[in-house]
Amino acid sequence: MAARVCDEHSESQHASTAFASYVAHELRSPLASQRALLELALADPAADTATWREVADRVLNACKQQERVLNACLVLAQSHSGLRRRATVDLRRVADRVVRASDLSGLTMRSKLERAWVYGDADLLERLVENLVGNAIRHNTHGGWIELGTRTSGTNAVLTVANTGPLIPTDVVARLFEPFNQLVGPSVRGGGGLGLGLSVAKAVVDAHGAFTIARARSVGGLHVEVAFSAARRAAGMLSN
After folding, report:
1. Is residue 36 packed enough to be buried (19+ CB in 10 Å), middle (13-18) or exposed (0-12)?
2. 141: domain range?
3. Do the strands 156-163 and 145-153 form a parallel or antiparallel pair, or are they unpaired?
4. For the chain, what is the domain count?
């Protein structure tokens, strides 16, 4: 048993070190870019207002990218530390809010939202749906579709997100849920992903004691299903 605990501790340390390294790399690149832009502008005696405005715009965009990385990492950390706030949440209402806020230009949303109660953190659950839908939007094809569903199946509340998109090798699917892993290739929303969306989604699922089944669609795209314990049963389990 001692050896097992030791091994688990070592694996956890390795995972934490690797993740910290990934984050440092993702933040270092835009920082280096910002520094280079500023140094070039400062070294240019002919730099005028237009030059500095262009530099400011590019530095601001880099800052926004860093902010997105940090926000995603904070959600990951919060999810891994467990649920701090718990309430009975209707996934149908969460999914409906996400659909209304999403930019679906060029895509068709097919939603079938039924009442599905989950006992958990409302903010994290909304981030889960946002990230799954955002991934389905980003890695899609022009004129494609997204299917979003919530329902109760037996004793479970179920969330499903499916989308058209590029072909995904079966052996790649699991790796998409690891930090900073994403498919190589064009996306319908250019420039977008951090490679953190699905790993954040998985962390939220794990924090709620739920489970995920993800599979590549044979004609392209991804199908993700998340099953939660029904709210009443989950509330009893989490209070013990």
Report:
1. exposed
2. 87-239
3. antiparallel
4. 2
